[in-house]
Amino acid sequence: MATIIDGRALAKKINAQTHKRVAKLNQQGIHPGIAVVIAGDDSASLIYTRNKHKKAMKLGINSILRKFPRDISQNELLAEIDNLNKDDSIDAILVQQPLPPQIDQKTITNAILPEKDVDGLNPLNLGKLFANQNTNHPIACTPRGIMRMLKEYEVQLKGQNAVIVGRSILVGKPLLALLNNADATVTMAGRNTRDLTKLTQTADILIVAAGVPHLIGAADVKAGATVIDVGINRLSTGKLTGDVDFDSVKEKAGLITPVPGGVGPMTIATLMEQTVDLAQWRHHG
Ligand code: NAD
C-alpha cells in the first residue's frame, strides 16, 4: 500500500511561508501584486480564477481580476497586457487558459513581460529552464509544485527512470526539463506513443498529465513507483477524478498523489509563492 502524498498539507505549509514573506516585504514598502486575466465565460476557468484571486487576497498579495467578454479582440487583449506590463504595482500576470478562438495563445504568452510571467510560459523563461540556467526565472507552477512534492517526500531523481505522460507546454514540457536538470532519465509520451504500458512499467517516477480519466491502471505501474497524477477530470456524476485509477494503483505504488488533494493545491500555492518571488526579484534582483 502506497504512502499518499498530502498535497493539501504541503500547500498549507508553503502558503504560511508565503504569508510571512509578504509581511516582511510589506515592511520594506514592497506590496506583491498579481493580475489574473480571463476572457470569456468558461465556468471551470471562472472558478479557478476566483479561487486564485481569493487565495492571493488571503495571503496579503494584492490581486486584481481582469475579466473580459468572450468576443474581445486580440489587439484589445494585447493592449490590456501592455497596461499590466507597465503597471508598477503588478509583479505577476496570469492569463487563464483556454482563450476564445479568435485569440492566439502564443501571441498573448509572448506579450507578457518575462519578469512578470508567473506561468513561466514565455519562451525566454522556458529557454532558461531548458538551458538549466540558475538565474532567477519563473517556472510553470504545476511542474514546480510537483518538483517540490518530490523533494518533500525525498524521492530520489538522479539516475532514476522518469516517464511523463502528456506533452503540453503547461505541464509535460517544463517537467521534462526539470527532471532532466535533476539528472533523471526522462521519457515523454503522448497520444501517439506506441505501447504506453510497456513504457510506463519502466518508470520509477510516473507523472500523468493527459486529461484522460483512469488512463493508468495497476498493470501500467511498476511496483513501488512514485505516481503523480496531474489530471483533473469531471465525470458525468459530477465527481472529480484523475488520470490514474487511484484505488487499484495505490495498492502497487510506493507513493501516490490523490485527486483532489494532490497536485491541485500545490499549483495554487506555487503560484502565490512565485508571485512573491517575482516581486522580490524585481525589487532586489
Ligand atoms: P493538454 O490537453 O494540453 O495535453 C494533454 C497531453 O496528453 C497531450 O500532449 C496529449 O498528447 C497527451 N495525451 C492525451 N491522451 C493521451 C493518451 N491516451 N495517451 C498518452 N498521452 C495522451 O492538457 P494539459 O493542459 O497538460 O492538462 C492535462 C491534464 O492535467 C488535464 O486533466 C488538466 O485539467 C490537468 N491539469 C491539472 C493541473 C493541476 O494543477 N492539478 C494543472 C494543469 C493541468
TrEMBL record:
<keyword id="KW-0368">Histidine biosynthesis</keyword>
<dbReference type="InterPro" id="IPR020631">
    <property type="entry name" value="THF_DH/CycHdrlase_NAD-bd_dom"/>
</dbReference>
<keyword id="KW-0658">Purine biosynthesis</keyword>
<feature type="binding site">
    <location>
        <begin position="166"/>
        <end position="168"/>
    </location>
    <ligand>
        <name>NADP(+)</name>
    </ligand>
</feature>
<comment type="function">
    <text>Catalyzes the oxidation of 5,10-methylenetetrahydrofolate to 5,10-methenyltetrahydrofolate and then the hydrolysis of 5,10-methenyltetrahydrofolate to 10-formyltetrahydrofolate.</text>
</comment>
<comment type="pathway">
    <text>One-carbon metabolism; tetrahydrofolate interconversion.</text>
</comment>
<keyword id="KW-0511">Multifunctional enzyme</keyword>
<dbReference type="InterPro" id="IPR020867">
    <property type="entry name" value="THF_DH/CycHdrlase_CS"/>
</dbReference>
<keyword id="KW-0378">Hydrolase</keyword>
<comment type="similarity">
    <text>Belongs to the tetrahydrofolate dehydrogenase/cyclohydrolase family.</text>
</comment>
<dbReference type="InterPro" id="IPR000672">
    <property type="entry name" value="THF_DH/CycHdrlase"/>
</dbReference>
<keyword id="KW-0560">Oxidoreductase</keyword>
<dbReference type="InterPro" id="IPR036291">
    <property type="entry name" value="NAD(P)-bd_dom_sf"/>
</dbReference>
<comment type="subunit">
    <text>Homodimer.</text>
</comment>
<protein>
    <recommendedName>
        <fullName>Bifunctional protein FolD</fullName>
        <ecNumber>1.5.1.5</ecNumber>
        <ecNumber>3.5.4.9</ecNumber>
    </recommendedName>
</protein>
<keyword id="KW-0486">Methionine biosynthesis</keyword>
<dbReference type="InterPro" id="IPR020630">
    <property type="entry name" value="THF_DH/CycHdrlase_cat_dom"/>
</dbReference>
<dbReference type="Pfam" id="PF00763">
    <property type="entry name" value="THF_DHG_CYH"/>
</dbReference>
<keyword id="KW-0554">One-carbon metabolism</keyword>
<feature type="domain" description="Tetrahydrofolate dehydrogenase/cyclohydrolase catalytic">
    <location>
        <begin position="5"/>
        <end position="119"/>
    </location>
</feature>
<keyword id="KW-0028">Amino-acid biosynthesis</keyword>
<feature type="domain" description="Tetrahydrofolate dehydrogenase/cyclohydrolase NAD(P)-binding">
    <location>
        <begin position="140"/>
        <end position="280"/>
    </location>
</feature>
<feature type="binding site">
    <location>
        <position position="232"/>
    </location>
    <ligand>
        <name>NADP(+)</name>
    </ligand>
</feature>
<keyword id="KW-0521">NADP</keyword>
<dbReference type="Pfam" id="PF02882">
    <property type="entry name" value="THF_DHG_CYH_C"/>
</dbReference>
<dbReference type="InterPro" id="IPR046346">
    <property type="entry name" value="Aminoacid_DH-like_N_sf"/>
</dbReference>
